[in-house]
Amino acid sequence: MINMVALMGRLTYEPELKTTPSGVSVLRFQVAVDRNYQRSGSERQADFIDCVAWRQTADFISRYFHKGSMIAVEGTIQTQNFTDKNGNNRKSVEVVANNVSFCGSKAESGSAAPAQEYNQPAPSYASANNSDFEEIVDDDDDLPF
Question: Residue 134: pLDDT above 50?
Answer without folding.
Answer: no
